[in-house]
Structures are given as C-alpha cells and as structure tokens.
TrEMBL record, chain A:
GO terms for biological process: hydrogen peroxide catabolic process. Keywords: Heme, Iron, Metal-binding, Oxygen transport, Transport. The keyword Heme applies. SUPFAM superfamilies: Globin-like (SSF46458). It holds the Pfam family Globin. The zeta chain is an alpha-type chain of mammalian embryonic hemoglobin. It comes from the Eukaryota. InterPro entries: Globin, Globin-like_sf, Globin/Proto, Hemoglobin_a-typ, Hemoglobin_oxygen_transport, Hemoglobin_zeta. GO terms for molecular function: haptoglobin binding; heme binding; iron ion binding; organic acid binding; oxygen binding; oxygen carrier activity; peroxidase activity. It comes from Loxodonta africana (African elephant). Belongs to the globin family. This is Hemoglobin subunit zeta.
UniProtKB/TrEMBL annotation, chain B:
The lineage of its organism: Eukaryota, Metazoa, Chordata, Craniata, Vertebrata. InterPro entries: Globin, Globin-like_sf, Globin/Proto, Hemoglobin_b, Hemoglobin_oxygen_transport. Belongs to the globin family. PROSITE patterns: GLOBIN. One of its GO terms (molecular function) is heme binding. Keywords: Heme, Iron, Metal-binding, Oxygen transport, Transport. GO terms for cellular component: blood microparticle; haptoglobin-hemoglobin complex; hemoglobin complex. Pfam families: Globin (PF00042). The keyword Translocase does not apply. PANTHER family: HEMOGLOBIN FAMILY MEMBER (PTHR11442), HEMOGLOBIN SUBUNIT EPSILON (PTHR11442:SF7). GO terms for biological process: hydrogen peroxide catabolic process. This is Globin domain-containing protein. Residues 3-147 form the Globin domain.
Amino acid sequence: MSLTKVERTIITSMWGKVSTQADSIGTEALERLFTSYPQTKTYFPHFDLHPGSAQLRAHGSKVVAAVGDAVKSIDNISGALSKLSELHAYILRVDPVNFKLLSHCLLVTLDTRFPADFTAEAHAAWDKFLSVVSSVLTEKYR
Amino acid sequence: MVHFTAEEKSAVTSLWGKVNVEEAGGEALGRLLVVYPWTQRFFDSFGNLSSASAIMGNPKVKAHGKKVLTSFGDAVKNMDNLKGAFAKLSELHCDKLHVDPENFRLLGNVLVIILASHFGREFTPDMQAAWQKLVSGVANALSHKYH
C-alpha cells in the first residue's frame, strides 16, 4: 500500500497548520488513547499518566515529531523511521493492534481541531498515511 | 455485557440529542465507503461510487446512511440491553446481508470521527471514551447472533 500523489499533497499541505499545535496534539491523542483504551496504559507503568503531566506532554511531543518526520520524508517513510522501527521491534515491542488505536485517536484529535480541513478525502489520506507509518513501525517485528 | 455508568449514559444521550441524524448518517456511511473502499462491496446497486465527491453526494448513500444511523438511535435508547435491541438486526446482517462484523467496528469509528468533527472541543476524551464503548457495544450486539 503506498500513497498517491494527491494523498501526499493533502498530508503535506495540512501539516503546516498541524505542526503549529504539534505538542498539544500529541498530548491530546495520548490522553484519548489512555481514556478510550485503558489497556494501552500497560505500556507506561513508569509514567505519570494524569492529564497534563510533564511526562505525557513530553511523550506526546515525541510522537508527533516522529509523525512530522514521516510527513517531511513522505516519499521514503521507511527510511525516515528506520531507527524507530528497530526500537519498536526490539525494545518496545508494542503489540501491533495498538498502532490502529493510536492512529484512530490521532485522527479524532486532528478532526476536533481542524474540522473544515478534515474532508472525506483528507480523512482517507490521513487514515492511509498513519496506516503506512504503523506498517513501517511494525515491519521488523518478525 | 457492556455496562455504562450514569455519567457515560448522560454524555451519550446529551450529545445524541444535538445530532442531525439524517445528515450525520449520510456522512458516516459515505466516509466508510471513501476511507475503506473495500466496504463498497455491499453496495453494487448504489450507482456512482467512483470518487469521494460522487460517494458523498450519492442519494442512495445518504438515504441508507440515514436508515443506519436512525437504527443506531435505538442503541442510545437501549444502552442497558444492546444485545436484545439488536438481536433481529444481527440475524439479518448474518443470514441475509452476509456482512463481516469487522465492518461494524469500522463504521463505529467513522461515526466517532464525525462526532469529533461536529462537536470539536466539546468532544472531550471522556466523551469519546463513552462513545467508543457504545459503538463497540453495538458492534458486538450486531455480531452476537452470527453463526
């Protein structure tokens, strides 16, 4: 599965707006993940997960920065996220099902903040893009 | 069986009261067909589904979306007995429509995204969690009679 030219354009052009709220988007997406899917908290026993915690904010930033890296290298997401892919495969080993859950929460977060931009086509492009990112992050699992 | 707290029930019903079911239904079904094109397999008789704008403007999609979401309204009224409320529909989706239950999960998530779109910041993480629980309960209720 790879992104069409139109899909890449939708993503890269929206990213300008999105990146201005990058940190809070990341934090909110994680908050939504932990609230809707409490089982995902099992990957963060070492974190203070209260809304607004410094750790949550820092981690949210990290996550969205990585998404940003994928956007900036949208023609070679595999290359851009290669190190992260290894990290997830060998160290973090987050079960693949959770990438869908976080992707969904990222979409919801983007949608609440940019409803006018989040047309059906943009929704499809983002869903596909996050699905590609998820595949890259799990491609070295076995 | 899924159990809803009083807060969750009130969060769901208060939001639902503000939803334009006809509009949201068409939007939800349309987006399902756009974002997950393989779901079009159930709708060969719907005519032009060749592009996002064709799908979103298709009158059969809008009509069917309204039907589906109206039925979803029954879920909101029967949160304590989703399996009972959807028993007949479950049999229909299995025996006559032959729909893979995974599609119920996909549609449920599309509905959540549409609510997020309409309600913006009002669609808080807690609000989302209550709705995720409901759409998941509906998906399970609709698959309950599958055999």
